[in-house]
Amino acid sequence: MKKALVISGGGSKGAFAGGVAEYLMREQGRDYDIFVGTSTGSLLIPHLALNHIEQLHYAYTHVNQRSIFNVNPFVVRKKGERTYVTINYLTTLFQFLKRKRTFGESQNLRKTIAKNFSRASFEMLLKTDKEVVVSVSNLSKNRMEYKSFRDYDYASFVDWIWMSCNYIPFMSLVTKNGYEYGDGGLGSVVPIREAIRRGAKEVDVIILESENMEHNKVLGKNPFSLMISIFGFVLDQIEYHNISEGIIAAKHNGVQLNLFYTPSKLTENSLVFNKKEMTQWWQQGFDYAKLKYESRSTPLPQPKVAY
User: Fold this and answer.
1) What CA–CA distance (Å, rounded) separates 217 from 228?
2) Strand partners, 37
3) Is the pTM of this model over 0.85?
């Protein structure tokens, strides 16, 4: 019986998913045949498929804004204990003057991915029987695409991981094979159905959002900040529908579905990469998964969905 691990998009919140995955794989001995990820999930899954958890932990707890952006469209400020994000107007102006279509550029992320997931790791992965799949949004064709590492060479697969993470219009819009691609989360934040389509009969799903999404958000006070808030709202709705569709597909195909949400909202802006916070989130993810397992004596219940 094939088992799958699915990890949603969520930017810096991927550190929490790393902690959950560490507990599931190391403490519970969960052995997955299929790994499917979107955005930050795409960054995690090649390392998890190789069981390179220590290397993954180091990467997620040592990343910062410079690791992601070569043109950073954000300014991170602190007011008391609260961290908030505003648009860097000077950077945005330069992007407009250069006739760029995005507010920022994420070429540094491409380099960071290649640094942490080497060609040797890719070749090692090819020798396993694992299936690793990342989601990307083909904006030219207006459709979702799922890229298995077995169908591409090393450089191309790194490109697909990078494209899966590019949160348009704040990160790079990438052209490949004549088409323009962006973040997989624009169409599939939680790609449960893809794991089921590939034959999984039991799926662990790490969702980087709290189960109850009824929280008050602080809306932006200018058009750019408001745009970030609106994008967050849209992605929340896509996520909800992805989960509902995944639950329905699981019921129809006799698939055991185990959902792991964040117990609380971790951050207002997942494009802020704070090493201290991400280190804490990794441990929180590990502790949350441990508590979830220790508090039950029966298998995880099947989730419910409202039709």
Assistant:
1) 11
2) 7, 134
3) yes
